[in-house]
Amino acid sequence: MNGNHVRNKMKKLRERYTSCYEMLQCSGFTWDDVKQCVVVESNEVLSTYKKKNPKAKYQAWSPFPEYDRLCHIIRKDHAIDVVQINQYREREKCLAEQQKEQQTNETTDEDDGVSSTENVAENATESHLNTHHTSSVPASESSVSTRKRSVRGRLTPLVIW
Predict the structure, then answer these.
(1) Residue 82, Cβ neighbours under 10 Å: how many?
(2) β-strand partners of 154
(3) Where does the Myb/SANT-like domain lie (predicted)?
(4) I need a surface site. Which of 24, 50, 76, 145 has the fewest CB within 10 A?
């Protein structure tokens, strides 16, 4: 056995582990410690999963005794990827909500016949006149600040990560 054989074997085990791990993250799948395999609640769940993941390297009900040991070896790499993906999705969701809110504000401003710069200026003067803050954090230390966008000339919230 040479280095290429070991690399190829590890690659196949990683693919099988990843496929098994992703299957276990879906509802309807559980791990059986006695049989050392993934157990499926119903055939409908399995057929739906197979339709969505036709290239899965692991099939339910097939023994996978290496899974527990591979959890310690591979999980760290996989967990980092999952965390990064979740952070990316959260950022995208936040940006989409901000864009949606901005479009809603533009639509509301157009319906009122008031330009958005006038609206922002009115809101800014009202907030400066009102010195009573309900938050325990001073307005200057808030995580949301405003910045001026030169393209459209209006103030937009800037979320600091």
Answers:
(1) 13
(2) 149
(3) 4-41
(4) 76
- Count of residues for the chain? 161
Query: Helix, strand, or coil here: 85?
Result: helix
Q: Is residue 127 part of a domain?
A: no
Summarised one tens digit per residue, pLDDT across range 52-63 is 999 888 889 999
Q: Which residues, other chains included, contact 30 with Cβ-Cβ below 8 Å and sequence gap of 6+?
A: 24, 38, 39, 41
Asked whether residue 105 is domain-assigned, the answer is: no
Do the Cβ atoms of 16 and 58 come closer than 8 Å?
yes
For residue 7, being part of any structural domain is answered with yes
Residues of the chain with pLDDT under 50: 115-117, 120-151
* Cα(105)–Cα(158) distance, integer angstroms: 16
pTM across the whole model: 0.47
> What pLDDT, on the 0 to 100 scale, is given for residue 82?
62
Boundaries of domain holding 65: 3-88
